[in-house]
Amino acid sequence: MIDPNQFNNYLILGYAVMWLIIMIYIGSLAMRQKNLRRDLELMEQILEEDDHLDS
Amino acid sequence: MEMSRLNRYTRVMNIAAAVSLVVAMLAIFFYAPVEQTMGNVQRIFYFHVGSAWVGSLAFLVALIGGVMVLLRGDRKWDTLSLASVEIGLVFLSMAIVAGSVWGKPAWNTWWLWSPRLTMVAIMWLAYAAYFMLRGALDDEEKRARFSAVYVIVAFVTVILTFISIRILRDIHPVMFGGAAESAQGAAEGLQEFSGLDSTKMVITLNISVIAFTITYIAWMLNRIRLQRLTDQTAVLKTRVTAHLQGESS
Amino acid sequence: MSENGINEAVTLPEETSFWSAVWTITRKDFRIERHTGQTVSIMIMFSLVTVIMFNFALGTNLGAARELSTGLLWATILLAGTLGLNRSLAIERENQTFDALLISPIRRNAIYLGKVFSISIFTLLLELVLVIVFVVFFNKPFWRPQVLFILALGTFGYIAAGVLITSMSIQTRSRDVLLPVLLLPLSLPLVLPAAMAVSAYMFPELPSWGEVQSAVYLVILYDLLMVTMGLFFYHYVVES
Fold first, then answer.
1. Could you give the C-alpha distances from B134 to B76, B143, C1, C173, in angstroms and in order?
2. Which of A54, B102, B144, C163 makes the best surface tag, with the fewest CB within 10 Å?
């Protein structure tokens, strides 16, 4: 019977990398969303100011 | 579905996903028993199989999206397809990495040109290429149409590859791995559910699959919302450009 | 009513049967190639260069090179094939013969099939040259008729997939460069059985039919699936 804890570092490595991928993707989603929201705000601002200038 | 409803569902699913993943981790490390032949490292199996399953589901959904784009031409199917391929690729990457890390102690190699792994490598390449195709097309409508055709052909290719390899392996086992073949066969046996030697393992596996499915749905909602924002931004950009050009004339 | 391409006129009466339309397209491509000779010669040069480069990479280890020769043959065909596909379909776009074809009453499918046949034949011409080169360099019986048959069978399927994919890739910003990225992964289910079948014939004794039949059937399956998908999806990828 082999030692059940023999390859534990692989176990940890495996889960660490999987969670890293999960985190990276969630981070990517969050960052893209933040950037888009900011862009949207910016442009809505520009359009508002423009309307102000026109009127 | 309007934005506020989408936002609400997304928030709910995000929480559900986080909770279910935590539950899955607990089950994997505290509920599942120690496996006989390999010990604790076998626990990678739960996330590995879970993500592989859900990744395949994602590509199937992407296929459906592609078919619907060609049939109906409605933009929202293209968004569904795009989101599903992206998320599917993430799950597939997780599965590949997990499998590789598990493979090292199990077969003493990080990679093996076994039937399943060859198919998975091609799968990854084909779906990654999907984004190269999209990236090189500016016309929205053309992009949706071409992506749909490609996603369908890619799916058929993956199925064919799987069939191909399975059939050929029976005839030419030497061509596909040689010495490590039997170890890999045993490992694949583990990967098929027949290898599970206790109900606790089955339950843990089911919990993992459910957790990943919930995560898939949550990520889909997030990605679809992201696409909506992208589209809104694009529309606004053209308006802003028009405004600014109007100013300067 | 004639369209102007490279001084090629494609004239068809209103009612044209499907197969004669296909044949007209194929013949037009042959005529263009005979005048310009761009496609096949580029494919041949590219292949020779590739094979020689590989030989250098494999060094003086002749044994290793011979082991890999079947795989190398198929890899060269796949790569050279992308050249032929890009060239042949780009020529259409350059000279606006393509738009003219689309206006004509030929059904899209006939165009697709016509191109598949013409480019397949160009690739087969390349393969004839390659077979000779490989027999000389690697001293293996690639000249066997069964090998030639498998090469032809596989080529047809590959080009069938290729014409569909190339029609998309040349409409992108990346054009030529994108094709290998898209097409090569999709060619795997063809290459595996095809290479296996060919390598079965590389030994002094011929293999029995039973040994190769699965592989050959898989190649045929690939051919049928790709041509079917091509015929089905082609009109979605060309502009109306």
1. 16, 6, 38, 10
2. A54
